[in-house]
Amino acid sequence: xxxxxxxxxxxxxxxxxxxxxxxxxxxxxxxxxxxxxxxxxxxxxxxxxxxxxxxxxxxxxxxxxxxxxxxxxxxxxxxxxxxxxxxxxxxxxxxxxxxxxxxxxxxxxxxxxxxxxxxxxxxxxxxxxxxxxxxxxxxxxxxxxxxxxxxxxxxxxxxxxxxxxxxxxxxxxxxxxxxxxxxxxxxxxxxxxxxxxxxxxxxxxxxxxxxxxxxxxxxxxxxxxxxxxxxxxxxxxxxxxxxxxxxxxxxxxxxxxxxxxxxxxxxxxxxxxxxxxxxxxxxxxxxxxxxxxxxxxxxxxxxxxxxxxxxxxxxxxxxxxxxxxxxxxxxxxxxxxxxxxxxxxxxxxxxxxxxxxxxxxxxxxxxxxxxxxxxxxxxxxxxxxxxxxxxxxxxxxxxxxxxxxxxxxxxxxxxxxxxxxxxxxxxxx
Length: 429
Known about the structure:
12 strands, 16 helices, DNA polymerase, domain 1, 3-stranded antiparallel β-sheet
C-alpha cells in the first residue's frame, strides 16, 4: 500500500445512522490532500486504524467484510493507477485529476491507454460522456455505454487493439457482421448470437457520432466516415384496442395488490400518449385547468394534453397527481403479468431482420407488451377513431408525419375496415 494514498475514516464525521464512510486520502504534499469516497459505510468500531482494514468481525447486516475489503483494495489500486498516470503525463494537479476521474465508469484500465498522450478509443468514449453530461438524456447515455461495451466485445473477438486508425471500411463491415451474427446476447436464461438490425444501427450511429465529435474537437485527425451507413427497419409492435384497454382498466387485482400501480401507470400512458419517462413521473405542477403541461424528456418540447375522465380518475382521484415511482425494467416485467391476468393472450407473430435473414417469433400478445406499447396504443387508437393526424401529433410530440406513421400499428384487417366504411358512404356506379 503506497504511503501517499490510503483508506481512512474521518473522526467525528458520521451519518445519521452512526456509520462512517471510508475515504481514500491522497496526500499530494504535506498540506495538499484530497478525499475520495469509496461508497463503503460501516461503524467506526469495525475499522482497524493501524492496518487501514475492515475487521472480519463486521456484522453481516453491514455487508460481507471480505467483499467490502476486496472492493476497498480494488478502489485503492484504481486510485494509485490514476495518480501514476497523472504524474507520468504531467497533469498540472494530480489531486484534481484524481477527483475528476475516479468515479467515471470503466475508464481506468491503464492497459487500454496508449503512449505519448494519444489516449485510447475507450478512454475517449468516457471523456465524450463526461463532455456531454447534462446535455443528453439518460437513455442516450445508456446507448453510448452499450456501444462501448459492444466495441470492447468486438476487440476481444478480433484479438487486437482497436485504435482510431482502425476505423475504415473493412472495420465497419467486420463490426456490423459481428454485431449481426456473432455477439453473444443473454435472452432470459438463454444466450443467443446477434442483435436486431435497429440495435446494430443504434450502435453504429453512436460510434459515428462519437468519432465525429473527437474529430471536431481536434483530438484526432480527420477520418472518412462516409462508409458508416445507417441501418434501420420498421419496428413491428403490438397495440391494444379499446376493448383490451377496458379489460385491463376493470381487471380485479385485489389478490395482486403489487400489480395495481403498474396497471394504473400503463392506462395513463395509453390515455395520454406520453413516453414512459414522462407518464411515470407526472406531478401536481403539470396539471393546470384540466390540461397536462408536460416537457418531454427526449425532445425538450412541451406538449399540452387534455385529461380524459378515465385518466383523471387515476391521476387525480386515486393518486392526487403523485404517481408511483417504478423502474422501467420492473414495469416491463410486471405489465406482462397484468395483461396475462387480463387474458390478453392471442398468438401474435412478429418478424424482424437479422442480416439478410427474416426471423419470425410467435408469442402470446401479453409477452410483446412493454412501456412503449402505451404510447403506440394511444396513437393507433386515435388514428383509427378518425382523429386528424396533426392533432394526434400535437399531443404525442412527433415532429414529422413519417416519424408519426411508424407508431401506427393498425393491422391490415382494421385498415381494410376503415376503407370499407369510407367506401360505404360514397355513391356507387
